[in-house]
Write a structure and sequence with these properties.
By secondary structure, this protein is of the alpha+beta class. 34% of the residues lie in helices and 17% in strands. The two termini are 17 Å apart.
């Protein structure tokens, strides 16, 4: 039995009700950095009264606009510009988190709403491009942090869908609630003969009915994270993208209702792996990053500074090669499909390096890049698994 409104799908924005514009910043080159220490140093200089406005603007190539004047901004900052309050971690691009200076530099009114559901909170965010043009659309990605407006490297703004909504302080000690339309959730629950619960059962609970390790036929409940993982798997499904373009031309994708519990839990499982992979939280990411070592030509021992970046085929039999980052250093065993992999027009394996041209990679940055390669390779593998599952 179902109570669907004569439809086999739901519109994504009807289920995830609140969406927030991506973060926009004034003076991006000043307010965003890969290094939190660098931002702290900028705050010190910005509030240093011994540095003139003119010198500060020259030092950081700052420019004034109608609603951002250097004198006014420095007066507002004064002595209260505390790094602990003013610096916020964001996802700048897929797999590329950075730090931004938000106090007096944020450029959209939605920041207070976004901060409410993100700052010091455990949450998940589905980022989607505001414009969907065709079935090749891949402008979606889940993150732990709020994301920059041009997250996919485009001029188009993104919409950020938090999984949970948090109460304001004046509302008292209320619990977070799922950002999910209850009518649609009831339809899913009834069609699958499952009970929806707003939070995952605590670890160690005697009842195993909601545990993901339990066989599908014995599961009795599903959670907001299960719902998001189902959606995420559908969005990555090659079969889904072969559907009529009407599924994409409305400005937001239409997600098919799950057809049965077995299919639902299959997709939830793959969606869970994709989500954790993309947040670099999957065990596989930590266990396998050493498969793509950074090596030096002729045992080169100089620092790995990013200069000439390109992929070179070293094994034509399976399109595996090396990513050269300069004349002497390269990452090994990189599949061509990983090098070219595209997320909403952004190619992480290529552009993460290019955006750091001239920079010498630290040990942590080398490991982070190796994890990106693992994540992209896992994504390709998981999409192949999805290809065998009927959607809708």
């Amino acid at each position: 039995m179902t109570i669907r409104n004569n439809s086999n799908y739901f519109v994504l924005t009807d289920l995830l009700q609140l969406n927030i514009p991506g973060i926009k910043m004034h003076q991006e080159h000043f307010t965003i950095a890969t290094n939190i220490k660098e931002l702290e140093n900028r705050i010190v200089r910005f509030t240093d009264k011994n540095i003139s406005n003119k010198d500060l603007m020259t030092m950081y190539s700052l420019s004034e606009v109608t609603d951002w004047r250097i004198e006014q901004m420095r007066q507002l900052a004064g002595d209260h510009l505390n790094p602990r309050d003013a610096i916020f971690k964001i996802d700048y691009r897929p797999f590329d988190y950075r730090f931004c200076l938000v106090d007096n530099f944020i450029d959209n009114n939605a920041w207070e709403t976004l901060k409410l559901h993100a700052q010091s909170k455990i949450n998940l965010f589905l980022n989607i491009s505001a414009k969907i043009k065709n079935t090749k659309w891949t402008h979606f990605f889940i993150t732990r942090n709020p994301s920059y407006a041009s997250f996919f490297g485009l001029n188009d703004d993104i919409s950020i869908f938090p999984l949970y909504l948090f109460p304001r302080e004046e509302q008292g000690n209320l619990k977070r609630i799922p950002n999910l339309n209850q009518k649609t959730i009831r339809e899913i629950a009834i069609s699958l003969s499952l009970t929806f619960i707003p939070e995952k059962e605590p670890e160690g609970n005697v009842c195993m009915a909601g545990n993901r390790e339990v066989r599908p036929e014995f599961k009795l409940t599903f959670t907001p994270a299960d719902t998001l993982d189902y959606i995420y798997a559908v969005l990555h499904s090659p079969a889904f993208h072969e559907k009529d373009t009407d599924f994409f031309e409305s400005g937001t994708p239409k997600i098919p209702f799950p057809t049965d519990p077995e299919q639902f839990w299959q997709l939830v499982g793959i969606g869970d792996q994709l989500r954790k992979t993309h947040m670099l939280e999957s065990p596989e990411v930590y266990e396998n990053f050493n498969r793509y070592p950074l090596s030096g030509k002729n045992n080169e021992t100089s620092e790995p500074t990013l200069k000439k970046i390109h992929w070179e085929n070293s094994d034509p039999s399976n399109d595996t090669g090396r990513i050269w980052i300069n004349d002497m250093h390269f990452f090994e065993n990189i599949p061509l499909q990983v090098w070219k992999y595209n997320i909403g027009g952004y190619q992480p394996a290529i552009q993460w390096l290019i955006e750091r041209s001239g920079h010498t990679l630290t040990r942590n940055e080398i490991v982070h890049y190796q994890k990106i390669i693992v994540a992209l390779n896992n994504t390709c593998r998981l999409k192949q698994k999805l290809d065998g599952i009927k959607i809708g």
